[in-house]
Amino acid sequence: MKSTDKNKSFTLWPYAIVVAMVCFMAYIAMFVYKAMNQDVDLVSKDYYQQEIQYQDQIDKVRRTQALGDVMLDYRSTDKTILLQMPATYQGMNLSGTITMFRPSDDSMDKQVPLQLGRDQSQLLEVNDLENGLWKVRVNFTDGKETYYSEKTIQIK
Predict the structure, then answer these.
(1) Is 109 within 8 Å of 41 (Cβ atoms)?
(2) Per the confidence metrics, is the pTM higher than 0.85?
(3) Fewer beta carbons under 10 A from the terminal one: N or C of the chain?
């Protein structure tokens, strides 16, 4: 009679293992679904083309540093950025662009033309820029050579 009691015993272990496996598979499926629907923005749209031309960028930075680096001074009190070219650029006919680049959201990027005054400076108002981390990129030319400078600022 004891042998029949052993055969009728009920255990939850097989059901618990099956439930655990189903829960794990559901978690993985949910993770894959969320990962596939995540919006992934690259730093720039033409990232691969820029990577190929990176040596040119290094050369631009070296030329800029050889003549004196561009000074960028952010003033939080009046929300302006003062761009000051070194005296070594005096007499050069410089043209180019200033790009305010927001690493976290490329839709906030802003680009303005380089328009230096007599004292080789330009004042940029940044009232319309959101608070946070910004990279100010100055890309300019004197007609013969191209130059590049980049500074990171924290707008508060």
Answers:
(1) no
(2) no
(3) N
CB atoms within 10 A of CB 148: 21
Of 149, 140, 93, nearest to 114 by C-alpha is: 140
d(CA 32, CA 148): 41
Q: Which residue in the block uniquely carries the two structure tokens 């680009």?
A: 111
d(CA 1, CA 51): 81
> In the chain, what percentage of residues exceed pLDDT 90?
33
pLDDT tens, residue by residue, 37-66: 887 766 667 777 777 788 888 888 898 888
Report whether 81 contacts 74 (CB < 8 A). yes
What is d(CA 46, CA 52) in angstroms, rounded to the nearest whole number? 10
Q: Are 116 and 78 in contact (CB under 8 A)?
A: no
Does residue 102 have a pLDDT over 80?
yes
